[in-house]
Amino acid sequence: MYHFFISQDQVGEDHITILGPDVNHIKNVLRMGAGEEVLISNGIDKDYLCEIVSVTSKEVTARILSVEEGGKELPARITLFQGLPKSDKMELIIQKAVELGAYEIVPVETKRTVVKLDKKKEESKLRRWNAVSESAAKQSKRLIVPEVAGVMTLKEALAFAKDFDLIIIPYENAKGMERTREVLSFVKPGMNVGVFIGPEGGFEDSEVALTESFGAKTITLGKRILRTETAGLSVLSVLSFLLEP
């Protein structure tokens, strides 16, 4: 079933009006018409199962068949702070992080970050990254579209996360899976959790010390060294397993 996002002001008493680029997609790409069912989310707290009533060049009108609250979101908010990787790896990370339930993704510039984005390039990347997030949210039937925030320095990211309930940083020199299990066991529904992942080459020792000064807990992900595009997804997978009701 196709999935679309709207704002709450597009929801009527018994119908929803779809506007914008999705109209062309429904009409000319998917070639959908009256009688077909779609899933529509308000991006906040409700999923609507709807039946298309009419399709014009400007809007799609759909009748609400049922409403589900809570959707398929994890019961905790997990923010992925991802050290900027090379090439197009960020798109893969965003796509999979959204599928795994991340609430938000924050690109982070660290000492070993190779990619440097000026303001113009950053704006272009953010448009693309948020489009990837929306597409992944539709595919995975998310209730919300996780935002990809603007690029932050490590200090800015830590300041952003300072009031989180828990900050986790996988670190190759951390030892002991028992410690990892202990830290992750603290994650409970309703918490805000930050996961900090370094770029290729990881964090420098001074950066790890900085995160620890903000209360971050270092953990190991095992004896194998994971790539930057794997590490965050590994943590998200474990947290999803622990949190899913």
| Helical proportion, percent range | 25-40%
**How would you characterize the largest beta sheet?**
7 strands, parallel
User: In terms of structural class, how would the helical and strand content be classed?
Assistant: alpha/beta
Structure annotation, total helices: 7
Overall mean pLDDT score? 92
Estimated share of beta-strand residues: 25-35%
Number of strand segments: 12
Low-confidence stretches: none
What is the H-and-E element order? EEHEEEEHEHEEHEHEHEH
Gap from first CA to last CA: 24 Å
**Coarse shape:** elongated
* Rg estimate, integer Å: 20 Å
Walkthrough of the structure:
- This protein has 245 residues and is α/β, with parallel strands linked by helices.
- 33% of the residues lie in helices and 26% in strands.
- The chain is built from seven helices and twelve strands.
- It has helices spanning 21-29, 89-99, 119-139, 154-160, 177-184, 205-213, 228-243; strands spanning 3-5, 15-18, 37-41, 46-55, 60-69, 77-83, 104-109, 147-148, 152-153, 166-170, 192-197, 217-219.
- The strands form two sheets. Strands 6, 7, 8, 9, 10, 11 and 12 form a seven-stranded parallel beta sheet that branches. The protein has a five-stranded mixed beta sheet with strand order 1-3-4-5-2, with helices on one face.
- Helix 2 (89-99) packs parallel to helix 3 (119-139) and helix 2 (89-99) runs parallel beside helix 7.
- The two termini are 24 Å apart.
- The model has no long low-confidence stretch (mean pLDDT 92).
